[in-house]
Amino acid sequence: MAENDGTQRSNPAAGALRASGFHHVPVMCDEVLEVLGSGPPGIVLDATVGGGGHAAAILAANPDMSLLGLDRDDAALTAAGERLARFGDRVVLHRSAFGDLAGAMEAVGVERISGFLFDLGVSSPQLDCAERGFSYRQAGPLDMRMDRRQRLTAAEVVNGYEEAELARILHRHADERYARRIARTLVAARPVVDTALLAELVREAIPAPARRRGGHPAKRTFQAIRIEVNGELDQLADALDEAVRRLVPGGRGAVLSYHSGEDRIVKERFDRAATGGCVCPPRLPCVCGAKPKVILPRRAGRTPGVDEAADNPRAASARLRSLERISGTVGS
């Protein structure tokens, strides 16, 4: 794997870097290891390495594997560098969104991978740091950028989008039932100056009986704005297709999603890979010439066990989907 700007090899010197508070508790770690550990040796792509929790577990359990870890959050990469330093040159970290997966892999000189993991959504350290603006429980700036080099922030979405566009993203990105009411309230209250005011305005916009159900009333709105700021859903489909294309025969892929919008995209792309894009009517023989690229061990996916969901409430909504590359279809 070649060195490149934005790329670092994990090594003991990384321990000198401090990423205070960035502690990553990997969700469904045993299940992820079950999927990826049964694949062939080689390079595993962690497309959302975060604090390196999953990555450390994969490397510790599989000495014949190395890892390419991507993340667009500089604090996450610093934390991952610390956590993974003990694995030496088995690890390369590169600052990139998974939306530029092809460019990132070209930059580090990786053509094929034996496995991949996408752990979608926002990490606990990002949520817990008020200054990042992801939290509806703490006052902070309207930021929500995973990559702090980008220009679009939550402030621009909340205070600059037209009412109809705000309602659209609340519905599309979070299935928010009261999207129009919330959008109308936010536009009328502009300028919205911080996350505390945003959370309070959302709470006021939602009918009182609904506030008492399903957790914090602002949860879905914050999720939708975060997804919009970071373009999370817009880049997911192409990134999954690219990761599947680069799998070696027998290579495994795993994706952890945390809400219905993400999971719909993952399911659709995995199903498309499993059918080869077949357009023939269901339950009839395929005559369109489509060739399946992968097999799906579990079509319905998996969810966390009761104990994990109780111990880590942020894991409760997770769904794990996986696939395996079929021999003879590499590169397509």
Brief characterization of the structure:
This protein is α/β, with parallel strands linked by helices.
The helix/strand series, from N terminus to C terminus, equals: EHEHEHEHEHHHHHHHHEHEHE
Mean pLDDT: 90
Category by helix and strand content: alpha/beta
Q: What kind of sheet is the major sheet?
A: 8 strands, mixed
| Span of the ends, CA to CA | 23 Å
CATH topology tier name of the largest domain: Rossmann fold
CATH architecture descriptor of the largest domain: 3-Layer(aba) Sandwich
Number of helices: 14
Cα-based radius of gyration, to the nearest Å: 20 Å
Strand order of the largest sheet: 1-4-3-2-5-6-8-7
Assign the CATH class of the largest domain. Answer: Alpha Beta
Strand content: 5-15%
CATH superfamily of the largest domain: Vaccinia Virus protein VP39
Number of domains: 2
Report the strand count: 8
